[in-house]
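Protocol step 6 of 9: fold each sequence in the batch and record its structure tokens directly after the sequence line. For illustration, a two-sequence batch is reproduced in full.

Sequence one:
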Amino acid sequence: MKNLSALPMRDLEIFGIVKDGNFTIPEKEVHALKNGKMTDIVELKDLKGKDVQIDKLPARLSIVRGEDGNPSLRIDPVYREAKPHPDLSESERNQLVKKELANLKKSYVDKDGNIQSQVVEYDHRTKQFLSYNPRDIKAPHQVNGEELSPQQKKKYKEGDTVTLEDGTEFQLSPSSPKGIRSNNKGLVLSVMLDGGLSYLLITGIEKMLGKKSWEEKAYTEGYLQAVKEVEKQVERRIFRNPKDKDAVRDLNNIKEEHSKISADTNLSKEVMDDFDINKIKRLNSNDTEEGRDPRKRNSEQENDQERDI
């Protein structure tokens, strides 16, 4: 989800998530909804319906496609104990609840009698099992600058661990706050949009389940180069609209990552200096590539119009 027009505003208003045109949940949770992720736990208040009234309901929110193909609000309440899943045995449920497995692939028969596949994982925040159809997932084109093979994309969609050439591992996890797990706290995902690449910098990623230790990888060359690509993309967005709040937020995220990278003594002095936080200014039209060379604006603006991180 990339903009308000893609959100089910009527649903959000009914459940008090939007009042008088303003969101009542934290900005980072709004950002999660816009990007198709689950929010962290938020508190819905004063919910009223036929013969029911709920003063407070802690829940996680997400936007899904309804049967009519339009965006719809999904509410996953927080339960006091794990709810059973009809397609899982007791042993399988326990493996997921105890974090012995990240997920399980199961088959089921849909209402039309067709055999479908689903990936089931356990959301420890809401204490319920979540499932998704791999066919509904769009895999990234690149991760940390490395193009994924068809086999790697298939593994990503099915919730399997994907390993890059530099040893970076990651795994799709819709129940995780960032929607993904990794043996690295930062990743740059790239997707193809309108013939060009759009970059998404994700930091603060949770570690993968089933690992005995964090096993965090050092900053790889591919990741460092990908962060630079994200920075260029944010420059273009701010050049087009200096008041773009989302772009300013993304710039702050980049600044935080620059600060961490420049302080990593395992890196060479050249790399540390290249990511010096003082080199990132509050961008304006003269700070960007387009500002220094206005001819670049016309050649790139059309392709970048829908490419946001």
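Sequence two, same batch, same settings:
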Amino acid sequence: MYKFWQKTIQVLSILTLIGTAIFLFWLYKIGILNDQNVLSDLIKSQGALGSLSFLAIQIIQVVFPIIPGGVTTVVGFLVFHFWWGFFLNYLGISIGSIILFWLARRYGKKFCLLFMSEDTFYKYESKIDNKRSYEIFFILCMLSPISPADIVVMITGLTSMSYRKFIIITLLCRPFSVVAYSFFWIYGSQWLQQLLG
């Protein structure tokens, strides 16, 4: 049964990536993706429901890391603008990370292997033997916009790190990675367009 769920999630991950690519292409074709105002108006027309829906998506994409979280993070800034977009991204990702940490601690290695290969699991698990070194590694991953944050959160759930320490590190470090990742894609893509255009 476990192997079945492992394969199911792997297939869902692939289907989600394909579906995301198709969805983004469709948004581009109908003018939503390449016109920030159209996308913004679409979500804002939902009122508070739009913000709550986006917040839920951010939590879900962390807890079940088969949805490309980078896409939703950038969309948050584009649609809700900097401060509200930052707040929704930060809150959703932080809540999702805490839930993911709890799930990994509660269900252990088998839960982690639902979302990563054994090679990836053992690669990161080998780092937890040195407690101090791993804590520094964890902090750097939470600060970095390009680290495999969800994987590291799950592995951290298998360590002796307390909930209090995990939550403090997450709340202090996540703002930097959220902003850096979004700015990299938003302004990086604009720079690339200017360079190629």
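Proceed to step 7 once all outputs are recorded. Observation for sequence two: The chain has a mean pLDDT of 79.
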